[in-house]
Amino acid sequence: MSAEVAWPAIVEESGKSLQPFDKRSGYDSKTGIYHSLVSLRPQLEIPTTPDLDTTSFVLSQFPCAHLAETITAFIDSSTNHHLSYGELRRSIFSLASGLYHGLGVRKGDVVFVLSPNSLSYPTICLAVLSIGAIFTTANPLNSPTEIAKQARDSGAKLAISAPEELHKLTPTGLRTILTCPSSDGDGPKMLSIEELIQGCSNPIELPQSQVVQSDSAAILYSSGTTGISKGVVLTHANLISMIRLIQWAVNVSASQDDVFLNFIPMFHIYGLTFFGLSLLCMSITSVVMQKFDFTTMLAAIETHKVNNIPAVPPVILAMAKHASKARCDLSSLRRVGSGAAPLSKEVEREFRQRFPWVELRQGYGLTESGGPATFSASNEDAKTRPDSCGRLLPRFYAKVVDIETGKPLPPLKEGELWLKSPTIMKEYLGNLEATTATVDPGGWLRTGDLGYIDEDGFVHIVERIKELIKHKGYQVAPAELESVLLSHPMILDAAVIPVEDEETGQIPMAYVVRAAGSELTEDQVIQYVSSQVAPYKKVRRVSFIDTIPKSAAGKILRKDLVSQTKNQLVSKL
């Protein structure tokens, strides 16, 4: 590791500035590094004890035994069932004991979880991590083929599935237990998490598994531009660091007695780090929705007097346009966060007009960065920089690198955003080539996003260098859909591009070259792709073309197709 990239960590630990940097932008012209302009409070220093695991750290932040029985950790929005911090602690201990002693799960084993949000999701996560096993999650919307591929790639030894998703795991042959008892009386009796907890109801301590911070803790899958879904490996140190940073962000923007609403999927880095881990360290109550439903969300805000909603742009848009028609009392709402995809200035402006009393703040992060990397720490910052995703979180450093020359750039110059922090992933699972291409030897994460940092240190994302399509906050790889399209016997060539969409952010659109004499229709193409991928990935529009534009090296010239599509839309208008 070079002296240049090692220096920022030394500064952060010592608290002394070894070199001057601009106090407005955080930019150091000698190193090309941007520094966070917010400082960590002493009580939020990141623990460095080597043998500290994520679960032990989270449990150490729980309220004392007496208060733990009276403070609610989670409320199920559909059943109104309350789970206290005391009950949660006992469930974690019992499940960890059952997994270790009853099912033989050991340190390093990978446990595959396929389930929508539930009160048991954090219990499963923390129980798995406590015994040194590795937690990997999957989107319940994924197809059986996608599920099998991920289970195989992760090397899973055990699966935990919601009963309604079990059929997707059956072909894998994985030993599987259910999140709750199945209501299907026709099938064979299967062990459930609830029964495992009840069978080990009196453990007084967690199994001793000698977990250390450098051990792998989670494998979360992130799509790549090649179409190959890559497993992002995060260590216990990564998770503990991110928990601390989210604690800081919540402390500067919320109150401890606030009620949070959780419809963000916990299989996603956003939902997992926020609701499954971090808020539990602050004795905060979260209302859990199994999946997002707009009407149910509004009712939950009114019923539970929700103050805080970590959200995504399509939800913010829906609130701005349709919340007034629902006639629900949303006066308790104080803060809405936006992440997972860019929030347009138009949507932000419309939301603020509809909810003038609500603070709206943007953030930015990646699975590879362990979660959020930037955050608007005040509502005033968010208002004055509506096209920014905030400033760097504490312990984060950034570079803006010229794409052509590789040189670091000063404020207001556009380039690829690079990040460095204790939360940056360990690696892509079993993919040294992709890891090396994404994280340099000094620990800098190449985000693949084009952006700049302004003279006051605010980060602006211009567009994605990577070719991922963001649909409702989910990542869709064009190459994956192109592979499906090319498997059709009547399709000679294909390319998939993003098309901007007000409701969902972006939709996948396919350009298709049909075989001679083929009468393949747009609807047939859409249905063909839809039958093989998750619903959020499916192609929404199709245009037939004679040839796909490509470079001399054979790469699809997507920008040409994007321009062509925009021109077609303009001509129609």
In short:
The chain has 573 residues and is an alpha/beta fold.
What report would you give on this structure?
- The protein has 573 residues and is an alpha/beta fold.
- The chain folds into three domains: 1-35 and 396-466, Luciferase, domain 3; 54-395, ANL, N-terminal domain (Rossmann fold, 3-Layer(aba) Sandwich), CATH 3.40.50.12780; 469-572, GMP Synthetase, Chain A, domain 3 (2-Layer Sandwich).
- The strands form six sheets. It has a seven-stranded mixed beta sheet with strand order 8-7-5-6-9-10-20. It has a six-stranded antiparallel beta sheet with strand order 1-2-18-19-21-22, with no helix packed on it. The protein has a five-stranded mixed beta sheet with strand order 13-14-15-16-17, with helices on both faces.
- Helix 4 (85-102) crosses helix 5, helix 4 crosses helix 8 (193-199) and helix 12 packs parallel to helix 13 (345-354).
